[in-house]
Design goal:
Length: 150
């Protein structure tokens, strides 16, 4: 249905664990094109086309991300996003929204902080007006695995 999802939560709460499981299941069941990436890699892929003699154009790269059946973007709002980073992120998410293709965003920020970081419009689009969000509000699995918590 093209509906996206925002997954927020502290370190080690299993956001990537779930994202990878979803991606695997969707690829197997629907033979869909799914990619898991992060904001830094996404930005770098676009910026690489700005080099003289680059073998693909900025439009090609954006179109490639914009046309995947499912795009999962990790590390959203990790560092203060530069205007360029924001523009690239917004352009890809908007293009996907217009094509009714789902995007999943993963972040360590709270939902409210995420809105401040990447803008309310984008979060509103991905979550379909705030409905599709998942907060990972439990202990870190890393701490559990290391025997740090009870
Ligand atoms: N439901 C689970 N059952 C078993 N192990 C889990 C579960 N969820 C997460 N883990 C394990 O806990 C560790 C941390 O999970 P993961 O990397 O998904 O966390 P994260 O929320 O993405 O953390 P970060 O915000 O630091 O990127 C991984 O080794 C993962 O395999
Ligand atoms: Mg993670």
């Amino acid at each position: 249905a093209g509906t996206g999802l925002v997954m927020t939560g502290n370190c080690g709460t299993g956001k990537n664990h779930l994202a990878v499981s979803m991606a695997k299941s969707i690829v197997r069941e629907y033979l869909a094109s799914v990619q898991i990436t992060d904001v830094m890699r996404l930005t770098r892929a676009v910026k690489n086309t700005w080099r003289h003699g680059a073998d693909s154009t900025e439009e090609d790269v954006i179109e490639r991300f914009a046309s995947l059946d499912l795009l999962i973007i990790d590390e959203v709002g990790v560092q203060f996003g530069s205007p360029t980073e924001m523009t690239i992120l917004q352009e890809i998410i908007n293009a996907r929204y217009e094509s009714v293709l789902p995007t999943i965003l993963i972040s360590n920020l709270t939902f409210e902080q995420l809105k401040e970081s990447i803008g309310e419009r984008i979060v509103d689009r991905v979550t379909d007006g705030g409905r599709n969000r998942l907060a990972f509000g439990w202990e870190s699995y890393r701490a559990i695995a290391a025997g740090i918590t009870a």
